Amino acid sequence: NAGVTQTPKFQVLKTGQSMTLQCAQDMNHNSMYWYRQDPGMGLRLIYYSASEGTTDKGEVPNGYNVSRLNKREFSLRLESAAPSQTSVYFCASSVSLGGTGNEQFFGPGTRLTVL
Amino acid sequence: DQQVKQNSPSLSVQEGRISILNCDYTNSMFDYFLWYKKYPAEGPTFLISISSIKDKNEDGRFTVFLNKSAKHLSLHIVPSQPGDSAVYFCAASALRGAGSYQLTFGKGTKLSVIP
Questions:
Q1: What is the block-wise mean pLDDT of chain B (115 residues), using blocks of 10 residues?
Q2: Which of B69, B64, B3, B2 lies closest to B33 in space, CA to CA?
Q3: Does B101 touch chain A (CB under 8 A)?
């Protein structure tokens, strides 16, 4: 039981390049999330997916797109990377949104640098 | 506008003593509160949570207290152990109608437990 896995662990991009961060969970969770964490900041929600087939914007969605490919997988895409997107990205999953089902399990993170 | 505030960036405590981490929030719509622990280069791990209808929740050495009138919660760790040294994030969620969802993290408090 791997929990939440993320690939890649590290990535360096040049400004304007695109890439997709992959996330998968094997806990049969309904809800999945993408966060970014910057130095001195808490985690900020980029996008979330309440259940398979739905996605919604979080606090900082600009410059990102997401795809909930199936119940297990939730990807984050940067279409045209900018230096302001240099950050550590975390994927998480939970049984459901809100309440007692909202305890989220996090992946190990992807450290992204945009030059 | 920070809706979840952890005003102490760091805290040092002697091993065996009590650690008290504080969190304040401004949004009265928050109805569920969570604490996460994060070690360097790892994803956050869920620690303990509390619903807004309760004022205390206990799990082993960890107790969370909620004071709704003051919009304040605290995490108590007794006794503190060196392995508790980590960054602790307070988070608050609100699940509104039509699946609208908000989850906000504080900026974290770095706890150092001194042997």
A1: 90 97 94 94 93 95 97 97 96 75 89 96
A2: B64
A3: yes
